[in-house]
Amino acid sequence: MRLLVESEQREARGGDRRAEQRKAEQEFARASCGPPPDHAERQGKPEREGKWSIVHVLQHLADSEVVWAWRMRLILAQDRAPLTGYDQDLWRDRLRYRDVSMTDAFDQFVTLRRANLRLWQGLSPADLSRVGLHGERGEESLEHMRRLYAAHDLLHLRQLTRIFASLP
Ligand code: NI
User: Fold this and answer.
1) SS3 for 141?
2) How many helices (H) and strands (E) does the chain have?
3) Burial letters for 73-106: b for 16+ Cβ neighbours within 10 Å, e otherwise?
4) In this structure, are residues 43 and 102 in contact, taking their beta carbons and an 8 Å threshold?
5) What is the CATH number for 35?
6) Do 34 and 164 meet the contact criterion of CB atoms below 8 Å apart?
7) How many domains does the chain have?
């Protein structure tokens, strides 16, 4: 995954986060094309017993975009808006990630990511310094959130690479 390596290098140098997130989207697209479509059962196969499958990861990324979309809009529009945390394993189980198709998860991710990036591109330094109040982490600025999400992309790209490598 050449692009991922480039992303990691730029991340280490504190590069352009928007470019990072576009790269990540391309990488997720490549990752989603990994197993051929006639191997749908492999996409739902966990990395190991009790671990996440490719579909779980992609739906988690899609739902992370929902959370990011909501938080970014709250922070921009309201002063010191409260931000609630969420339990990703409960979301996986109770929101039935097991029933999701990989195409639907990926389409949701791409649509929301594009909408989020469009908003992101117009943010001023003053916007980036606006904060929400996270239930567990306290004051959190949009700039900080941007770093968190860039790191989150890289984490899950590595995880997807690992899962693909573990599939028979
Ligand atoms: Ni995650």
Assistant:
1) strand
2) 8, 3
3) eebeeeeebebeeeeeeebbeeeebeebebeebb
4) yes
5) 1.20.120.450
6) yes
7) 1
Residue range of the domain that includes 103? 2-166
Distance 4 CA to ligand 1 centre (A): 17
Kindly report the pTM of this predicted structure: 0.76
Mention every residue, 6+ apart, whose C-beta is less than 8 A from residue 85. 134, 135, 136
Please give the single-letter amino acid code of residue 27: E
Res 58: pLDDT: 93
Instruction: Kindly give the distance from the C-alpha atom of residue 89 to the centroid of ligand 1, in angstroms, as a whole number.
Output: 10
Average pLDDT (105-133) is 93
Strand, helix or coil at 52? coil
Distance from C-alpha of 15 to C-alpha of 8, rounded to nearest angstrom: 10
Residue reference for tokens 């390596």 = 5
Q: How far does residue 40's CA lie from ligand 1's centre (Å)?
A: 23
CA of 55 to the centre of ligand 1 (A): 13
125-168 confidence digits (pLDDT tens): 999 999 999 888 899 999 999 889 889 999 999 998 888 888 77
Q: How far, in Å, is the centroid of ligand 1 from the Cα of 151? A: 10
- Work out the average pLDDT over 46-66: 88
Cα-based torsion angle of the residue sequence 89, 94, 95, 100 in order, rounded to the nearest 10 degrees: 80
